[in-house]
């Protein structure tokens, strides 16, 4: 493949909503969405392939530990903590632009608090906790402003 294709040539100073963002649906699945294995390493794979928005379906798990899987199916479950650690490790290896976690939340308040705790502990300063008002999209920060940051949308 042509190495020039891996370089960014666009102006990355525009508001985030001005860009198409490479996104992944059911990122954790290694195969079909009914029976396949959920694997944390799928996040490593898509992030290194250039994906900047990954989906994390969160459900209440045993022992107060939230899990990630495709709800109401026979897909296997993985720990949310393991997913967050994998994302943290691979988010910026190939690309410094922000990573968006698209969290589909099906958790109880207790396990939502656990998710928030893991987000803060695992991502630390990378986690962008600045609140974005959805009023005027022109006020959104740019990909350049958000380099090295992890954003959460729920």
TrEMBL record:
Its EC number is 3.1.4.11. GO terms for cellular component: cytoplasm. It catalyses: a 1,2-diacyl-sn-glycero-3-phospho-(1D-myo-inositol-4,5-bisphosphate) + H2O = 1D-myo-inositol 1,4,5-trisphosphate + a 1,2-diacyl-sn-glycerol + H(+). It is an enzyme of class 3 (hydrolase). It comes from the Eukaryota. GO terms for biological process: lipid catabolic process; phosphatidylinositol metabolic process; phosphatidylinositol-mediated signaling; release of sequestered calcium ion into cytosol. Residues 10-154 form the Phosphatidylinositol-specific phospholipase C X domain. PANTHER family: 1-PHOSPHATIDYLINOSITOL 4,5-BISPHOSPHATE PHOSPHODIESTERASE ETA-1 (PTHR10336:SF51), PHOSPHOINOSITIDE-SPECIFIC PHOSPHOLIPASE C FAMILY PROTEIN (PTHR10336). This is Phosphoinositide phospholipase C. It comes from Chloropsis hardwickii. The lineage of its organism: Eukaryota, Metazoa, Chordata, Craniata, Vertebrata.
């Amino acid at each position: 493949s042509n190495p020039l294709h891996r370089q960014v040539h666009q102006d990355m100073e525009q508001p985030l909503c001005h860009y198409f963002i490479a996104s992944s649906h059911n990122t954790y699945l290694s195969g079909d969405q009914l029976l396949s294995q959920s694997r944390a390493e799928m996040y490593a794979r898509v992030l290194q392939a250039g994906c900047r928005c990954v989906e994390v379906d969160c459900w209440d798990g045993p022992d107060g530990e939230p899990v990630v899987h495709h709800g109401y199916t026979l897909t296997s479950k993985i720990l949310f903590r393991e997913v967050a650690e994998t994302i943290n490790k691979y988010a910026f290896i190939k690309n410094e632009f922000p990573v968006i976690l698209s969290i589909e939340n099906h958790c109880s308040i207790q396990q939502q608090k656990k998710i928030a705790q893991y987000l803060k502990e695992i991502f630390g300063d990378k986690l962008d906790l600045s609140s974005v008002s959805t009023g005027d999209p022109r006020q959104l920060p740019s990909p350049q402003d958000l380099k090295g940051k992890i954003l959460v949308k729920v």
